[in-house]
Amino acid sequence: MLKNLPLIATYPVFIRIPLFLLCLMVIWLPFAIPLYLSISDNPNLVTILTMGLLYLAFIFLLKGWNKWVYQVPQWLGYYGLTWTRKTGINYLTGLSIGYLFSLILFIVEGSLGWIYLKSSSFFLLKIIIEGWLSASLIALAEELFFRGWLLIELEKDYSLKTSLWLNAIIFATLHFLKPIDEIKRTFPQFPALVLLGIILVISKRQWGNQLGMNIGLHAGLVWGYYIINVGKLVSYPNIVHPWITGIDHNPLAGMMGLLFLGLLAIGVYYGGSSWQKR
Predict the structure, then answer these.
(1) Burial annotation 253-278 (CB, 10 A radius, 16+ → b, else e)
(2) H or E stretch including 138?
(3) 165 class by beta-carbon count within 10 Å (0-12 exposed, 13-18 middle, 19+ buried)
(4) Model pLDDT, residue 55
(5) Which phi and psi angles does 11 have, rounded to 5°?
(6) Model pLDDT, residue 278
(7) How many CB atoms lie within 10 A of CB 124?
(8) Angle at 199 between CA 195 and CA 200, to 5 degrees
């Protein structure tokens, strides 16, 4: 049976991707369902444990997928994840850029009087450390999935431009699964997520098809928002419409967030071009 698995590599992408996801569900659900039933009274714990199991199943399947389907032994490097000094530097660079991006966005809105910046009554160091850890884990998981596995699967069948757009739209759609009324109410978040997906694809390609910068940039954006949101460092006086500052206080769900993401896209593109000329 194993000797026939390389045939999957010849299938079109619209068969390969669902087949991979079906295999992932087959591996994950036998563990996730009993876990869900046993601790269903604690939704937060259920989410953490089941999502953790899902990612472990993804890693397990991804390794086998590359070994038996594509016959690629160095599978993490194949997807752009290498544990080198350069990867660490790129991660820290992206982390700084993403964090400063979030910080500057709120400072600009505060200077315009659209939000009020305030001191926090919480222990900020704890929030900073928790935010960095959770943001980095989320970024690692999402980048390996979207800009690692999914992007390469798309690039096998489509041009670089088409695969970029498909990847960004899929990324945004999977982050936007909610009731139709909520989709309508929070619609400005969708184009921002598409733009963020485009930025992250460009980042990978501009930084040598490696994920270090991506993980750092993604983590920095999440980290900056986490500190400000959880630390309750801003208040909203409702001077301008939430479509400008962000619906539900989410900066990506507003016009200012879109504007800043556009500037970030330009910076990532030209910054990556300069990096390649070194």
Answers:
(1) bbebbbebbeebbeebeebbeeeeee
(2) helix 124-142
(3) middle
(4) 94
(5) -75, 150
(6) 55
(7) 15
(8) 120
**Does residue 254 contact residue 244 with C-beta atoms inside 8 Å?**
yes
Phi and psi (nearest 5°) for 87? -60, -45
CA distance 160 to 154: 9
Phi/psi for 116 (5° steps) reads -110, 125
pLDDT at 137: 94
For position 276, what pLDDT does the model report?
52
Dist. CA 245–CA 116, nearest whole Å:
12
pLDDT digits (tens, 9 = 90+) for 169-199: 999 999 888 888 888 888 878 999 999 999 9
- Per the structure block, which two tokens stand in for 117? 């910046």
Regions of the chain where pLDDT drops below 50: none
- pLDDT value for 88: 93
And the tokens for 189?
């978040």
* Contacts for 158 with CB less than 8 Å, ≥ 6 apart: 13, 166
